[in-house]
Design brief:
By secondary structure, this protein is an alpha+beta fold. It has one domain. The protein has four helices and three strands; from the N terminus they run ββαβααα. Strands 1-2-3 form a three-stranded antiparallel beta sheet, covered by helices on one side. β1 and β2 form a beta hairpin.
Length: 85
């Protein structure tokens, strides 16, 4: 399973890959990213992000805290099934 992240910096540099941007991922997980300096590709990635954001639902903290018992139970079960090695 791949779960890629994209980061564009100053519209010029970008990285695409599986790495979570935290110390645990950098130190313990087997992750892979490609980083590049390409204004045209960075712009394309930014446009794709904006298009995705335009059709996404915003989740506010208040709504997140009010999610139902079933959602919370599913999250709990999923967290126990996730490898934490």
């Amino acid at each position: 399973m791949l779960h890629h992240k994209v980061m564009v910096v100053d519209g010029v540099r970008a990285t695409v890959g599986t790495t979570n941007f935290d110390n645990r991922s950098f130190a313990h997980n087997e992750e892979s990213n490609i980083c590049f300096h390409d204004r045209e590709l960075a712009a394309k990635l930014s446009r794709e992000f904006e298009a995705d954001a335009a059709v996404s639902d915003r989740v506010e903290l208040v709504a997140w805290r009010r999610r139902g018992v079933l959602d919370k139970a599913q999250e709990l079960v999923a967290s126990m099934l996730t490898e934490q090695a």
